[in-house]
């Protein structure tokens, strides 16, 4: 059949159509167009978006009965909205939400992991407007990128603000979260004679949505084991932070842990000062009490604040102590709540009597001139009573909360702890502590005693004697032309005020001898009153008496009134430092005829001990009132004016 003959117009249309078809075929042959498919989400998702959905797997075939019996919880998700603020059905392993600066207390059984979450909306919430009164200095110096910051230069709107670069290259912001855990109670050993270390809790941290219940055996997480009941972990995060606390299985122990968990975007809610210095000095002890001095708290204020701030503040420190034979605080010494629960000697929560261990708390904040920098700095003292003689004690200095407030919704409200250290009490009861004397203000140590006077009466007896001797000196100084022209004064280098101060310092040291056990073996110690009876009426054995060259120096005391009125019995004296005497000679007029024995002269070894003997531990080998040797640190200086501002004395009673 012949093809129909096309007109001219029809021929042109057919040719155009064929050309279009050919061009379309060529386009598909030589080009590779890309089309988006709904399942190809991973190719366009941002790096920090966590999807594990829409994989190339067939849908499961479920019959109608299975669909009716199976409970499928609805989990809604909305772009840019944190899941924590969207209602959904809870599950059995759902993490418990944490709130900024609000601790959660929980019991943890052996082998159990307790899970928590700090939500993204809490992470980026406004920080607290109140700063911790005492905050560790390294935290005060840290400021992190938040808000309008130039990502390339790191410049901030606040001059001098230090920044840390974010870890993610595609993000310009992150927040630091402080997660801390303290153990308040711990399992007890099955065998109460066991000396094994108590197992510690473990803290797990995850920032991966695939690990919302971090714990043992899982990946993409950090683990920190508590040390002595404390752990703190800093997390630089941009989203939800998942937390797990795990109690290890140990058949040698029974019971559960009670732990306090907290998270904060401001500062650690709990804090342990991981430094070698215990921040605490033992001034002296006797057989039933100890006198300790905390270092000035201004150093935690970067030393920049006005000291007047401290005169108005509540004394910041509290003290915990236990006999070393009491093992209840072992494993808890870095935990404030643990020490509050288990320490034998502890502060009360109300300032009144607590568990029969102490009387009402009365504090003293002391201010004075230090030889370190000449500034007026505060010190806080503790007088601990009711101790056992010849015993060693573990002692921990702490700060309740942040020193101005404590508890939930307080920055640093969980307290701060310093390193645990030890001190020892004396064996003999004829040495007793005195302190806070009106005249000899630097005296704070044990002195010869007969147990018939209390601390206040004993201190007054010695202080009155020294003040009486000083009146004779004042009469002699009235003969010296002090109020005259410089050319007529006895010296251009020193004044009458220097002489008076040096004489008073020397007088207090020699008229109020520092006492220690007669059984002490230090070669720098001087035996005294060996000719007297002991307080129980007996005398020293003959072989002990024959060991010493029985002279007036060993048979009696330095001050005759001690033998006639006090009658303490045999003791040993820590001799005054020889520089105390030399300072009087250098500072006072020659007309007063002061002289000091030299180390090579007769009588020196029974009267003084060389100041330099023992190096930095000079206070251990000679007595210089106002100088203190730290328990774990070196020598420290008490304020030269030991008592300037009085707010009471800390008296902790252990019955």
Rg, Cα atoms, Å: 38 Å
Largest β-sheet summary:
5 strands, mixed
The count of DSSP E runs of length 2 or more, i.e. the number of strands, is 28
- Percent range for β-strand residues: 15-25%
Report the mean per-residue pLDDT as an integer: 77
pLDDT < 50 stretches: 33-90, 141-171, 350-375, 614-618, 631-655
Helix content: 10-25%
What would you call the quaternary organization? single chain
Q: What structural category do the secondary elements indicate?
A: alpha+beta
From the spread of the alpha carbons, the general shape counts as elongated
Give the termini separation.
128 Å
Q: How are the strands of the biggest sheet laid out side by side? A: 1-3-9-6-7
- In DSSP terms, counting alpha (H) and pi (I) runs of 4 or more, how many helices? 14
């Amino acid at each position: 059949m012949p093809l129909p003959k096309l007109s001219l117009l029809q021929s042109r249309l057919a040719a155009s159509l064929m050309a279009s078809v050919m061009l379309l075929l060529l386009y598909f042959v030589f080009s590779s167009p890309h089309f988006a498919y709904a399942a190809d989400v991973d190719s366009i998702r941002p790096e920090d978006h966590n999807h594990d959905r829409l994989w190339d797997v067939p849908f499961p075939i479920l019959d109608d009965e299975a669909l009716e019996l199976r409970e499928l919880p609805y989990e809604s998700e909305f772009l840019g909205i944190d899941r924590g603020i969207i209602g959904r059905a809870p599950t059995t392993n759902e993490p418990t939400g944490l709130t900024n600066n609000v601790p959660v207390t929980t019991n943890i059984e052996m082998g159990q992991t307790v899970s928590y979450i700090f939500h993204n909306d809490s992470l980026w919430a406004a920080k607290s407007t109140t700063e911790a009164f005492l905050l560790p200095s390294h935290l005060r110096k840290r400021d992190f990128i938040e808000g309008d910051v130039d990502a390339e230069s790191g410049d901030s709107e606040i001059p001098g603000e230090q920044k840390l670069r974010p870890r993610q290259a595609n993000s310009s912001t992150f927040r630091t979260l402080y997660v801390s855990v303290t153990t308040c109670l711990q399992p007890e050993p099955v065998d109460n004679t066991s000396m094994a270390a108590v197992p510690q809790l473990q803290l797990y941290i995850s920032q991966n949505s695939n690990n919302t219940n971090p714990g043992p055996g899982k990946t993409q997480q950090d683990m920190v084991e508590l040390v002595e009941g404390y752990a703190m972990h800093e997390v630089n995060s941009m989203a939800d932070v998942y937390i797990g606390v795990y109690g290890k299985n140990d058949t040698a122990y029974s019971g559960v842990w009670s732990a306090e968990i907290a998270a904060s975007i401001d500062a650690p809610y709990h804090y342990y000062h991981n430094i070698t210095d215990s921040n605490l000095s033992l001034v002296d002890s006797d057989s039933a009490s100890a006198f300790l001095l905390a270092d000035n708290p201004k150093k935690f204020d970067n030393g920049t604040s006005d000291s007047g701030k401290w005169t108005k503040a509540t004394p910041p420190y509290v003290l915990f102590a236990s006999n070393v034979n009491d093992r209840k605080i072992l494993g808890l010494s870095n935990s404030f709540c643990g020490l509050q629960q288990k320490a034998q000697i502890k502060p009360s929560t109300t300032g009144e009597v607590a568990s029969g261990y102490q009387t009402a708390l009365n504090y003293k904040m002391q201010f004075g001139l230090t030889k370190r920098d000449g500034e007026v700095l505060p010190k806080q003292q503790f007088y601990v009573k009711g101790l056992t003689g010849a015993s060693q004690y573990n002692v921990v200095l702490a700060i309740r909360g942040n020193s101005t407030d404590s508890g939930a919704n307080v920055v640093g409200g969980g307290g701060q702890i310093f390193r645990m250290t030890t001190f020892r009490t004396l064996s003999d009861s004829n040495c007793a502590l005195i302190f806070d004397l009106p005249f000899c203000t630097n005296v704070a140590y044990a002195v010869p005693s007969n147990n018939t006077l209390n601390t206040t009466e004993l201190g007054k007896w010695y202080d009155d004697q020294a003040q009486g001797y000083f009146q004779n000196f004042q009469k002699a100084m009235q003969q010296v032309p002090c109020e005259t022209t410089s050319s007529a004064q006895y010296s251009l280098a020193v004044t009458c005020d220097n002489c008076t101060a040096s004489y008073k310092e020397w007088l207090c040291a020699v008229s109020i001898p520092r006492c220690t056990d007669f059984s002490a073996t230090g070669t720098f110690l001087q035996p005294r009153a060996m000719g007297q009876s002991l307080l129980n009426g007996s005398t020293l054995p003959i072989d002990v008496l024959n060991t010493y060259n029985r002279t007036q120096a060993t048979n009696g005391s330095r001050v005759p009134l001690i033998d006639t009125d006090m009658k303490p019995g045999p003791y040993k004296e820590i001799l005054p430092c020889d520089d105390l005497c030399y300072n009087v000679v250098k500072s006072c007029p020659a007309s007063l005829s002061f002289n000091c024995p030299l180390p090579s002269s007769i009588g020196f070894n029974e009267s003084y001990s060389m100041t330099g003997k023992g190096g930095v531990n000079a206070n251990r080998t000679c007595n210089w009132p106002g100088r203190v040797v730290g328990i774990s640190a070196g020598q420290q200086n008490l304020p030269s004016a030991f008592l300037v501002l009085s707010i009471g004395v800390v008296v902790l009673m252990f019955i």
